[in-house]
Design goal:
By secondary structure, the protein is an alpha+beta fold. Helix content is about 45%, strand content about 15%.
Length: about 350
Amino acid sequence: MEHRSYTDNALSEWMKGHGPDSEIVISSRVRIARNLQTQPFPMLATNQQSEEVLNQITSALQNEELNTISNFDFIPLTELSELDKRVLVEKHLISPNLANESRNGAVILSENESVSIMVNEEDHLRIQCLCPGFQIKEAWDLASQIDDIFESQLEYAFDENRGYLTSCPTNVGTGIRASVMMHLPALVLTQQINRILSAITQVGLAVRGLYGEGSEALGNLFQISNQITLGQSEDEIIDNLYSVARQIIEHEKAAREKLLIESKPRIIDRVMRSYGILSHAGIMDSKEAAQRLSDVRLGIDLGIIHQVSTHIMNELMVMAQPGFLQKQSGEKLSAEDRDIRRAELIRERLSII
């Protein structure tokens, strides 16, 4: 069975919306980690035990309340090619861990891909909800609703003192990881970013790159998330992230205004150079593409470029990734061939405007 609809299109349906402060916040995400009381953690489970987890969660998926949220597609990873799994990672629908190491792993996707539920990843169940723009509270409400439905059908591993039990000790307690993906080019250009990021870590938040822990912050994209899951309530975690993210948004807006007042000719030159290179380059590696796309996105937000939409920029963020490039080409590509195809694809996408 093939699931082309999830890997043939670079942009998930939910990304086509324009959420609050979407010129700075690309997306908001809440992920909830849960485990079943009667089964060992995935890393310790036998093949039979992980299959039993899969069966229990499949049964819980039949709950009629879930149908009021969306139609869901249950996809065992054995039905996906390695390339399809890589594309799902690039679209943030599954984790690299699930794609590479899972036994009896599966993903449950909503029609618009705003809900992604991973089975037998690091934990038995990881419920992820995504919203466009700055909607972290809305993402939490949706994730909590889905979590309640599953909890009514499954016996979660829970301790009265420690809270929800998870494979990794850093997730024990609420099991919540909430994050916002932010585009912060002005703070980088005005050399304020290091001070801002240092302050963030002092209030219990973590800063990561586009693909989470261990990834580089390419294209001035930063993922801000909570580090603490134990000792705080779910609402406290969400409110803390919301408050800090709101302050970062205001700092980025102020930095953009400063650039327009003090360095407008240089910013226009930077933006237009990147737009020109993206429109005409014959070869483009992923790092340069990320930076050039960041410049053009900033140009759109500052009113310097009018002929390109942020919708296209969101699409190119995924289309420029190695997995999607190869999926579109229908074959495995060398690094140089990917760079050539990346440049060609960006030219094509910008030329149809």
